[in-house]
Amino acid sequence: MAAxxxxxxxxxxxxxxxxxxELASEHAAFAGKLLADLGADVVLVEPPGGHHTRGYxxxxxxxxxxxxSLWWWHYQTSKxxxxxxxxxxxxxAAFRHLAATADIVLEGEPPGRLAAxxxxxxxxxxxxxxxxxxxxxxFGRTSPRRxxxxxxxxxxxxxxxxxxxxxxxxSLPPVRGGGNxxxxxxxxxxxxxxxxxxxxRETSGLxxxxxxxxxxxxxxxxxxxxxxxxxxxxxLQRQTGRHAxxxxxxxxxxxxxxxxxxxxxxxxxxxxxxxxxxxxxxELGLRExxxxxxxxxxxxxxxxxxxxxxxxxxxxxxxxxxxxxxLELVVARLPAREFFLGAxxxxxxxxxxxxxxxxxxxxxxxxxxxPVTVEHPGLGRSVTYPxxxxxxxxxxxxxxxxxxxxxxxxxxxxxx
Length: 416
Prior knowledge:
This protein has 416 residues and is an alpha/beta fold. It has two domains: 19-223 and 369-414, Rossmann fold (3-Layer(aba) Sandwich); 261-352. The protein contains 16 helices and eleven strands. The chain has helices spanning 29-37, 70-75, 89-100, 113-117, 121-124, 152-159, 181-204, 214-219, 224-232, 271-284, 294-301, 314-333, 336-345, 356-361, 363-367, 410-414; strands at residues 19-23, 41-46, 80-83, 104-107, 132-137, 209-213, 253-255, 261-263, 351-352, 371-376, 381-386. Strands 3-2-1-4-5-6 form a six-stranded parallel beta sheet. A three-stranded antiparallel beta sheet has the order 7-8-9, covered by helices on one side. Helix 1 (29-37) crosses helix 7, helix 10 packs parallel to helix 12 and helix 11 crosses helix 12 (314-333). The two termini are 45 Å apart.
């Protein structure tokens, strides 16, 4: 198993040279983290006493400490931190100075708050026309619902994903995606839009105000769910481990021999895949238990089957059914990980359902560099963090430093 890569190693990221001034918030914290870990100089602005998310549990070593919130640690990596009191005249002056040095201002403040203080985008664009300003609010700044309160839970529920997530058994309640998915989704849109605006500025010389509605950002993740309801009048039904649909589809999650679950809902229809499945059945002595095994042979005689034929061609649909039944037999015989590795060796697409703590030690994720080691000088030891949410071979990503302590960079930033 490969050692965890050290977060501070590596060359500058692709966003080196871009400065972001971020007003600390829950809404946009992940956007700031994405930009910072990709090399942008993100200056995180907190109010006196620190942002309230420093109080979010859990805490390192279970000791309640504003410098030890794991929530705070995760979302504020690679950022520099300063304390600025926007409610005071000198604080607003300091913020204006910071914004004048920035390429991007990122904020999740309640609509109207910054305008009331005289430090909003409209107040600063005259002296800094190239500034890209990104607002991340529940419903967008100009929406009639702009002042409605929300949480990550109500955001996911109101925008649609919760209604589409759950189990085949509809006596069970819907399921909310964990890990602040609503905020993350909005932050992804915010980070992407900010970078598009920076690119556009190279042509026009002008910045833009990017107004991100968290509700709208989350709603588009329902894929066809909202479209089917609004256009076709169809109400999609929750299904276990697969997309919601107006009609039930074939179950794809199955329990392996060790009690864990795997996902086999990917289409496997190429000649190589059909050969691999039939050979696997023979190796395990299971072919005689599959009454529909002859359909695998028919699939091979056809030269394979394609996903587009599913439900359209009777023979192709029967072949896919035999593939599913064959894999179910193999799943029931093998432990989940052995099944997963065996499928990978044979060129078959399957998945394993893992808990979060299993991901950080799983050999596959370790080999891909997902867990990274971050040195914490103040703690006297290193800590394992989740790494990049995506991997691009030509775009270096790293955690340059742990989350800033309160006011840690006041001198080097505010006196700059």
